[in-house]
Amino acid sequence: MPQAASGFPIREVVIVGGGYGALAAALALHKVGIPTLVLERAPTTRQEGFAWVALNNAWRAFEALGVADDIRKDHMPQTRINYADSHQVVYRSLDVQTVGPRKGLQRNEIRVIRRLAAPTAMADLLPEGTVHYGCKVVDVTTTPSGAEVELDGGQKLQAKLVIAGDGVHSRSAAKYHKATLRKAPVGSWRSLVELDCEQQGKPESTFYSGPNIRAGTFPCAFDATRKKMLWFFFVATVMSDQEMAGYDSHEKHVKGIRKHTRGWEAPHLEKCVSAAVPGGIQLSRIYERPVKAGEPWFEGCLTGVGDCAHATRPDLMQGGAMAVEDGVELGVFFREAMEEAGKPFGELTPAQIAAVLRKYETARSHRVAQIIAASTKTGNMFRRAGFLPRWLMRLVLAWLYQPFAFLDHTLWAPHGQLCPPLIGKHKDLASA
Ligand SMILES: Cc1cc2nc3c(=O)[nH]c(=O)nc-3n(C[C@H](O)[C@H](O)[C@H](O)COP(=O)(O)OP(=O)(O)OC[C@H]3O[C@@H](n4cnc5c(N)ncnc54)[C@H](O)[C@@H]3O)c2cc1C
User: Fold this and answer.
1) Is the Cα torsion angle 40, 43, 48, 50 positive or negative in sign?
2) Which stretches make up the FAD-binding domain (predicted)?
3) What atom in ligand 1 is closest to the CA of residue 137?
């Protein structure tokens, strides 16, 4: 493989970060014949937060990338989702299979997946030499011919296209993004714990609402040999920076969760909290970057995927899914552009590449702007409703708002196929 003076293989596309968005973009571009170089600052594949809820659209995106079955096999489907108050009194219950049918969907697929499952599956399908760990990018600058990426060792890489997938605190986004990052007044604890369990059965997921707080418990996977069920739980509550900084040990995290859920009668949540092992609880500050529908995000031959481009609150469980959608859509837009120009990526001009990126950003902005706004509204509504007397809260949440409306946001499919573009040899073969 030809190497640049920097020691990296020579690639026209550099992707910053190795999370969901970055790896989905790398895999999607690989599928349309564009090799990439992925630079991840961590020493290995890593993901914060233990697990996440992957809804219908995440599965459509994983299918487009060819990794869905690999991820599915280790994670059980959710069968029922309950909405409850802080005393575990259920005011709405959703049968995941039969709710709807939602427009355009035969059935719902919801699974809680381990954080590392998707990045590992995606990285495994990329050609050797694509993903480089331990590579921290300190700066990205757009140039007339593309963009320049600087690493913390001082190395500089020139690329025709740079895709920033370096998360909420992206340096490229801080420098170039047109929308401003906002800190939400919410902190969220997350953990994955094991509970004894004789049989897999059909364990149910539950969302809890209380004053200024939401929590949830979800089954993730069953270990038949060890007779253990893996449960994911989260507790998200309004929290100042000062309070958050005080939670600096396992004992303090557990104490903090118990302080915020004092007076609750939610035995299953309490069981999950008690089962957390030291180092097994993570607390994250929530951010959002409210992009505007119809407005592109970056400039020149630089774009972004995932949280870097459109961080959102997790109340609709969409951040990870949107990051993977981004990668798929970027691949489809480049396939279409190569077909339209009748040229492979290497022959596209910087102006043509920039035009594809603005088209991708504009198209995506309509979808993500709506999800960001709806996530904020959903979280606020649930937390505020928690202040109502319990009987009124149940009534309000059950009848004035349809909690299952979150499934409408999962009605997504890529706007085209991820396959080699019909140019040159491929076009001849297609018309033969
Ligand atoms: C509490 C909470 C709950 C959530 N629950 C859900 C859920 O249920 N469902 C869902 O779909 N989403 C959920 N999300 C959102 C989801 O976690 C994010 O949207 C998703 O991780 C975004 O992926 P990403 O690839 O954009 O960024 P990240 O996953 O943050 O990946 C960024 C990568 O870039 C690397 N990086 C950063 N800086 C540099 C640098 N300078 N150089 C090189 N590499 C760098 C990082 O190490 C990291 O690997 C939740 C988020 C939170 C906080």
Assistant:
1) positive
2) 12-343
3) 42
Q: With a 6 A CB cut-off, is 406 part of the ligand 1 pocket?
A: no
In this predicted model, what pLDDT tens digit does every residue of 73-126 receive, in sequence order? 999 999 999 989 888 888 888 888 877 655 666 678 999 999 999 999 999 999
Look at the domain 13-75+115-182+289-387+405-431 and name its fold.
FAD/NAD(P)-binding domain (3.50.50)
**Contact (CB, 8 A) for 97 and 107:** yes
Query: Ligand 1 centre from 381 Cα, in Å?
Result: 25
pTM, full prediction: 0.95
Of the CA atoms within 13 Å of residue 46, those in its CB half-sphere come to: 13
Question: What share of the chain in percent tops pLDDT 70?
Answer: 94
Ligand 1, atom 11, residue with closest C-alpha: 320
Number of helices (H), then strands (E), in the chain: 13, 17
CA of 101 to the centre of ligand 1 (A): 31
- The rounded radius of gyration (Å) of the Cα atoms in the chain is 22
Strand partners, 302: 162
Distance from residue 311's CA to the centre of ligand 1 (Å): 9
Instruction: Kindly provide the residue ranges of all beta strands, DSSP E only, lying in 13-145, ordered along the sequence.
Output: 13-16, 37-39, 51-54, 80-85, 90-95, 111-114, 131-132, 137-143
Q: Which residues are CB-contacts of 375 (< 8 A; sequence separation ≥ 6)?
A: 288, 312, 313, 314, 315, 316, 318
Cα 120 to averaged position of ligand 1 atoms, centre (Å) = 14
Q: How far apart (Å, rounded) are the C-alpha atoms in residues 315 and 296?
A: 25
Residue to mutate, 8, 16, 52, ligand 1, most ligand atoms under 8 Å from C-beta: 52
20: CA distance to ligand 1 center in Å?
7
Domain ranges for the chain: 13-75+115-182+289-387+405-431
